[in-house]
Amino acid sequence: MNLTTRSERLTGRIFLIALVVVTLLPFLSMLSAALQPRGTVPTGLAWPTDPQWGNFVDAFTAANMGALLKSSALIVAGVVPVGVLIATMAGFGLGHLRVPGGHLAFGLLLLGLTLPFEAVVTPLYYQMRDLGLLNTRWAIVLPLIGLYMPFAVFWMRAHFINVPRELSEAARVDGSNTWQLFWRVHVPLARPAIASLTILLFLWTWNQFLLAIVLVDDATKRTMAGALGAFQGQWGTDLVLLCAGSLLILTPTLIVFLIFQRQFIKALLQGSVKG
Amino acid sequence: MTSALGSAPAGSDTTSRPGRGDPRSAARPHRKRWGRTVRWTGWVWVLPALIMYGIFVLRPLVLTVQYSLYHWNGIGAARWAGLDNYLTVFTDRDLLKIISNAFILIIFFSFIPVLLGLLVASLVRRITTGPAGTMVRTVLFLPQVIPLVAAGIAWSWVLSTNGLVNQALRAVGLDGVTRAWLGEFDTALPAVGVIGTWVMLGLCTILLITGMSKIDPSLYEAARIDGAGPVREFFAVTLPSLRQEIGICLTVTIIAALASFDIVYISTSGGPGIQTTVPGLEIYRLAFSQRQVGLASALAVVLMALVLVCVLPIQRLTRGEK
Fold first, then answer.
1. Which of B306, B104, B60 lies closest to A119 in space, CA to CA?
2. Strand B79-80 relative to strand B70-71: parallel, antiparallel, unpaired?
């Protein structure tokens, strides 16, 4: 009996390793293409005899990476702090203060939980045009905050609903008002939930593609993903440069991911569970 | 980690609590009044989020429904269309094909990752803690972290004429099978699907293994003592215990399949012909290149409804028992 278990486990291991290899192969294939001399036709996976690391420098200039990083950073800076703050406040109001009629507001928000962005992108275009915000980063920032609210409020409410109410009573006897209560007692307690939400919103904003290509024409005012789309349009025929540029554009997310991987994986797991 | 939707309130109303000590009972009348005001002023906390949601989600949503009832080119005057646009969505051969494409993608985005994930999970049961486990987890999550656009570019290259897949086929002597996978009529849609499988497989596997590690090992011991083989064990113990995780995987991946856009836009732009066009891409094309805003909006409403129709039953199924 033990033997079967062991051989099963071994098969499992082999599957897992195969999965890891398959996951990595596309990246390796891109790297191998990116290191070939410019103008050659690369094949799938071939160790470059004379790796052209300079291709990455070319791609950096061609993609205008400096401007792209700045643009994405600005968009993230516009979306994430505001999004996290107002979602935390709403989660506090709905989950802890239990405002009268709060379940109605919550139900309204739940409507948006499975909403595909495609369903609202057309009116958003005209709305942004009327506001004179097309082709500005605001056209990405403002709608994204709204579009994240269903998940974000859902997420924060789930935290606050489990915080014992005695905690607030105690603080109220001390004479703090709700505002102080929120910042001094509840925000510090909610830190893990806030951290996960911040990571998820960062990731989703950085990788947002549809809104970027619809609402902003200028690639240097888009998110990283949107800029990558434009880069492909421009350099699609130059495979070596395209691969080098794609890898470059991936690098910032990868670095952030590797630094915060524990929190990332936790956030993604919980995020999909609650979403 | 359980879903919060059904969780019971943790405490009851503040004002109904009996005071525990003298000073607090003395303060009760005051606190009662104060508490009620706070409950109403509590809306201040909810409003910012609701306003952003209202302006940038609810208003556009209502407008989408409104547009869907008109013929409109986005510039001139709109003409009332009634349900014409919906009729077109449900009768136009191309549009029906486009919708069915999204359903075929569900096989690749949802079913294959969940089935493969279940297989791996039931064999591995738990990933070893320690550096090896962390490494496996990190790698399997990579496709979730990178933009889908990047996945599209990477796989366009892997599946191209000179790409990795054809190189591998040639290496084992299958030269006859090689082709431009994303460019040919018969293989384009499955090839796009494979990209989705790659993106979703890691997430599903890790979610299922995590769920697996929470199953009480004594359940398996009991099953083995009862003489259950691996297959019966899987259906009697593993599958029921993983109901919730499977539901989550299906929900996330089905939404990703039906609402797919990025991968298709980058890897095939919907071609050849409309072989790989999905509703998301068609909405974009209709609204912004064909200038048929009404039809695009009707398709958007249908897409929204399809997502709900597919996802809500899964929620009921997984919540039912918990």
1. B60
2. antiparallel
Q: At what angle do helices B164-171 and B148-158 cross, to 10 degrees?
A: 30
Count the neighbouring beta carbons within 10 Å of the beta carbon of residue B299. Answer: 29
Chain A interface includes B205 (CB < 8 A): yes
- Residue B127, token pair as written in the block: 């990933």
Please indicate if any CB of chain B lies within 8 Å of the CB of A160: no
Q: Which of B255, B142, B260 is nearest to A203 (CA)?
A: B142
**In angstroms, rounded to a whole number, what is the distance separating the alpha carbons of residues A14 and A219?**
43
Question: Which of A25, A163, A182 lies nearest to residue B10, judging by beta carbons?
Answer: A163
Asked whether the predicted pLDDT for residue B18 surpasses 60, the reply is no
- A36 is written with which tokens? 């070939």
Q: Is residue B274 within 8 angstroms of chain A, CB to CB? A: no
- Region A96-112: what's the mean pLDDT? 90
Measured CA to CA, the distance from residue B235 to residue B240 in angstroms comes to: 7
User: What is the tens place of the pLDDT at every residue in B167-215?
Assistant: 999 989 888 888 899 999 999 999 999 999 999 998 899 889 888 888 8
Nearest of B315, B316, B210, B189 to residue B257 by alpha carbon: B189
Among B163, A228, B132, CA closest to B140: B132
ipTM above 0.95, yes or no: no
Note the Cα A194 to chain centre separation in Å. Answer: 14
Distance from CA of B186 to the nearest CA of A (A): 22
pTM: 0.87
Q: Could you count the other beta carbons within 10 Å of the beta carbon of residue A61?
A: 9
Separation CA A1–CA B81 (nearest Å): 69
Distance CA B322, CA B319 (A): 5
